[in-house]
Predict the 3D structure of the following.
Amino acid sequence: MLREWTRTHQLRAFVLIAFGWTWTWDALYYIFNWGEVLPVTLGRQWGVPIAALVVVWVSDVPVGDWLGRVLDWRLHPTLFGIALFIPLFITNVQSVVGALGGGSLSYSPPGSLPIIVLFVLAQMLLFGGVEEIGWRGFLQPRVQESMSVLTAGLSIGVLWWVWHLPLFIGHEQYRLEPVFFVQYTLFVIGASIVFGAFVNVTDGSVLPLMLMHGTVNLGPVLAGSGGLLDGTGIISIVLGAGLWWLIVLALVLQHGRKMVSKTAVTSG
């Protein structure tokens, strides 16, 4: 009976499994104070790809075939370049603007180049990036069956935002401050729409998005401070979140609610 319900209610089943796994992990993490020994991202993000795999398996679609399509690496190299460039530009332009008007700007990476590469790969393949297997690999194309790319990305963005909310209970990088909360909300939903459009360009492969997700989590390699707008919160909202929405606006103005060209090149 449970298998039949899952087969006929795939979207609901995906949400229940993804949230059930993640929020159970969050509850155990906070109740038993695992923060001193384990990163919260060690387990919570895996609820999303696991939910996708379970629903695909129950629906009698060969899991190996589905994963082969979702993780297809035979894409045009430009797509991986875009996946690196967009988050690096958005995160580092904030540092540049933070130094304007008498401040200072310096190259301050979070480690040597090999460490940065290893961090991005870990984020891509083990931590935040694996979420894309579920959000954009499984959910985006199914939601698009009844709505536009724009609306699907917006809807998934709201779901993605809700899924992250337990992190505000005690994660050191999530703060219940008005400016941060507004910036975070705008960023998550705006990035979700961009990610949803991007997976249509890659014909369903999420590997570039996993790389983009990992690069977002890297943060800036430039340090800027002391400028006229430094510390005001304007930079994080207008640039940190606003630039994602600027991409959304540009895509909608060019292609409408479908957001991408049907003739986009996906393979190398």
